[in-house]
Specification:
Shape: globular
Radius of gyration: 19 Å
Helix content: 40-55%
Structural class: alpha/beta
Mean pLDDT: 97
Strand content: 5-15%
Number of strands: 6
Order of helices and strands: HEHHEHEEHEHEHH
Oligomer: single chain
Low-confidence stretches: none
Length: 247
């Protein structure tokens, strides 16, 4: 993309490229996919601004690009849930990221961009954050649903990199983090789906992307390296059981 020649009419060429891609994907999976992450991680966590790419620069700006993506997806896949997905989270240090996501979501509503839900990646960091940070997170989610958006947990797992090596302790803290987070998120009727970002520790992205300094296997998924359910599995199941019923 960085070296692609968009020609003498770059905005038209970029729009054609994006439109063709989305229409092709939606046609291929017609009637088989009920929810698309149409746009992923376009808000920069450092300052909440929108990311710039070769494609967005060619088309005339990031807002123009993402709006086109959602409008195209709506036409190509009517009746399918369209999601903006990002990794803002409830730990300290995410304030600018959350603010940028809210600004983007507000812009979608003002411009009539067809976005149905916010995808909340939920790569949690154990242990549970302070009560103050939990309140900040709830205020953020309140603002999101207050704009009429649905919620989707899209990439659930728990990062245990800062916890001691002791397996029993790690599993307990990971489970506690999961239950506290899910109890809060499941209290929103707008949340209707939860997707795990991998199920077995052996294949977790955390092993390579964020390895533990002590060399121990990260234990952030529902099943361990022997495919046995862990305490986090029980915590998630209990959170589902305790969640208010959906209509």
């Amino acid at each position: 993309m960085e070296t692609h020649d968009f020609g003498s009419r770059p905005a038209t060429a970029a729009a054609d490229m994006m439109t063709n891609h989305i229409e092709t994907v939606c046609a291929r999976y017609k009637d088989r996919i009920g929810s698309y992450d149409v746009v992923n991680e376009t808000v920069l966590p450092e300052d909440g601004s929108l990311a710039q790419t070769a494609l967005s620069q060619a088309i005339g700006g990031t807002e123009t690009l993402v709006d086109l993506a959602f409008h195209t997806a709506r036409r190509a896949a009517p009746g399918v849930e369209l999601v903006y997905n990002d990794y803002m989270s409830w730990e300290p240090g995410n304030e600018a990221h959350r603010k940028g996501v809210l600004k983007l979501l507000e812009g979608f509503r003002k411009r009539g961009t067809p976005v149905d839900a916010l995808g909340v990646q939920s790569h949690l960091i154990a242990p549970v954050p302070s009560a103050a940070h939990q309140r900040e997170w709830r205020r953020f989610i309140d603002e999101v649903v207050g704009m009429g958006y649905g919620l989707v947990i899209t990439e659930f797992d728990v990062r245990d990199r800062t916890l001691p090596a002791d397996v029993a302790l790690r599993d307990r803290v990971v489970a506690e983090t999961t239950r506290a987070y899910c109890d809060m998120m499941f209290s929103y009727a707008q949340l209707r789906d939860v997707l795990a970002w991998g199920l077995v520790d052996t294949f977790s992205w955390l092993q390579g992307f964020e390895p533990r300094s002590d060399g121990e296997v990260a234990r952030g998924c529902l099943y361990d390296v022997e495919y046995k359910a862990k305490a986090v599995h029980t915590a998630l199941a209990d959170a589902f059981a305790a969640a208010p019923a959906r209509g």
